[in-house]
Design brief:
alpha/beta, D-tyrosyl-trna(Tyr) Deacylase, Chain: A, two-stranded antiparallel ribbon
Length: 149
């Protein structure tokens, strides 16, 4: 599972003309599920998203996590984050999970983050979405659960 994680002052996601999710201060994660991701990938990613110190506190820039600041997380399914663009001009999406597995793992991630006491908003799995955000910093990290293997 790969997430592009961004610290934001606010963010929203729309599908057609409907607001699907909105957060103020917190984290936006663009989430790609790999075809070989399992429950251990979901658990690791959920823990990282909640516990990663992305926010300033005291004298340090990266001292508090999203829960400590009372923030929220906007999770957006985005299979293109799993693309391999090393060869040619057309990115390969072969590593991405098929839609049924991707939806299951994404829903598991939403539940796992929520279970840790953080407010979660989402887009709509598989839909064309418009994500708007104000990256605070800018602060952006790439998390990849495959690094554990």
């Amino acid at each position: 599972m790969i997430c592009v994680v961004q610290r934001v002052s606010q963010a929203s996601v729309m599908v057609q003309d409907r607001l699907m999710g909105h957060i103020d201060r917190g984290v936006v994660a663009l989430v790609a599920v790999h075809r070989d991701d399992g429950s251990q990938d979901v658990a690791w990613m959920a823990r990282k998203l909640v516990e990663l110190r992305l926010f300033p506190g005291g004298d340090r820039n990266f001292d508090q996590d999203v829960k400590q600041i009372g923030g929220s997380i906007l999770l957006v399914s985005n299979f293109t984050v799993a693309a391999d663009a090393r060869k040619g001009r057309r990115p390969s999406l072969d590593a991405a999970a098929d839609p049924a597995v991707g939806r299951t793992r994404f829903d598991e991630l939403v539940a796992a983050v929520s279970a840790q006491g953080v407010a979660v908003q989402t887009g709509e799995f598989g839909a064309h979405m418009i994500v708007t955000l104000a990256n605070d910093g800018p602060v952006t990290f790439l998390l990849d659960s495959r690094d554990l293997r």
